[in-house]
Amino acid sequence: MPSHPRHTWARSVAVTVGCALLFGAAPGLTATPAAARPTAAATVVPPTVDVPTDASAGTKAALETAAQELARLEKEAAQTNAEYLTATARLSVARQAAIDAERRAAVAQQVADGASRQLGQFASNAYRDGPMAGAAAVLASDSPTELLHTASMVSMVGDNQAQALRELQQARAVAADAGAQAQQGRDNATDAAADASRLADLAHRQLTRAVELLTQLRAKADKEARAAQERRLAAAQTALASGPSGAPGAATAPGPRPGLPADAGADPGDGAAGSDHLRPRTERAKRLLQEKFGVTDIGGWRPSDSVSDDHPNGKALDVMMSSGGQLPDPTHVDLGWRIARWVQANAAALAVTYVIWQARIWSVERSAEGWRDYTTNFPYGGSVNPTTLHLDHVHISFA
């Protein structure tokens, strides 16, 4: 189901607020083990501002105020993005539920129409033959055997009439229930669409203010810092002016060149799982991610999964960018995209099948489409949260 253009644009600008406002390089992430993940909210790293050494007290105060507002805006934009993605996922679920219910209602109505026609035929026969036709046929029987046979046929006709009536009543009840479910699905979709539209407007206001702040900071920055400010301002302005767009800039900008470290070794293939239940190919990718990006909180095997068998089969990794189901800070959103793009670039060498991050999915099978909207036909149904939307971890599946 295609997403509404306005909704797609809102995702782009909301993510850009979180990514384009970064000040400084993203450090490597060293997270705590899964069993000990804290439940506190993710920390937002405030931007640093290079204040000219000869700046007046008023200029310094203005820069500090702008930097503080920008840090607050980063946090609010990340929350807006998560709420928007939740709304679009619920919209997809509601629309699909309405479609399914409408289909069930149509089938039930066909059954009801068939039962109604059958009852109408019974009534027509009774009217044509008269109410005593059955009794007359029994009385006209010439022998006990014929009498029993005729009585049995009359009884069967009565049973068929009763069964047809029961089927009609049941089919009408099913059709009415399915119709009510379809209407509920349409109502839910309307509510979710309204939420997404409201959040789109909020994202637009946030990004507009971010552009204003970045403009102010660029004008006040030292010459050395101005180039970095220019790049971030250009990214925010592009997102604001682009209108309906696809994946965020971090997904559409040129990615890294393909290439694994010299010590990566050959693809070990899809062999037997090791002591941690991961296949050799998955284990190799985990080691490479740890070495290249400094991440240590990487989940892999679990006994069951409601969406696919990749994790239970040891063929998937979850690279955590935050803990406790909280939203990652902008630094780790950027790190997640660098990991996702590196995996994408080396999909052939790593035997990757698909990657999911920030409610976007990229797959080898549909690579020409780029990073697609993951909330369309959302596979988790009503279970919409930062984890199912993949806002807090990069998911990687292997062949």
What key attributes describe this structure?
399 residues; six-stranded antiparallel β-sheet; alpha+beta; single chain
Itemize the secondary structure elements and their pairings:
Elements: H1 5-20, H2 57-129, H3 133-139, H4 144-220, H5 223-241, H6 249-252, H7 280-293, E1 298-299, E2 316-320, H8 330-345, H9 347-350, E3 352-357, E4 360-363, E5 372-373, E6 393-398
Antiparallel strand pairs: 1-2, 2-6, 3-4, 3-6, 4-5
Helix pairs in contact: 1-2, 1-4, 1-5, 2-4, 3-4, 4-5
Molecular structure report:
The protein has 399 residues and is an alpha+beta fold. It has one domain (5-102, 191-398). The chain contains nine helices and six strands. It has helices spanning 5-20, 57-129, 133-139, 144-220, 223-241, 249-252, 280-293, 330-345, 347-350, and strands at residues 298-299, 316-320, 352-357, 360-363, 372-373, 393-398. The chain has a six-stranded antiparallel β-sheet with strand order 1-2-6-3-4-5. A hairpin with an 8-residue loop joins strand 4 and strand 5. Helix 3 packs antiparallel against helix 4 and helix 4 (144-220) runs antiparallel to helix 5 (223-241). The radius of gyration is 32 Å and the shape is flat. The two termini are 27 Å apart. Residues 1-52 have low confidence and may be disordered.
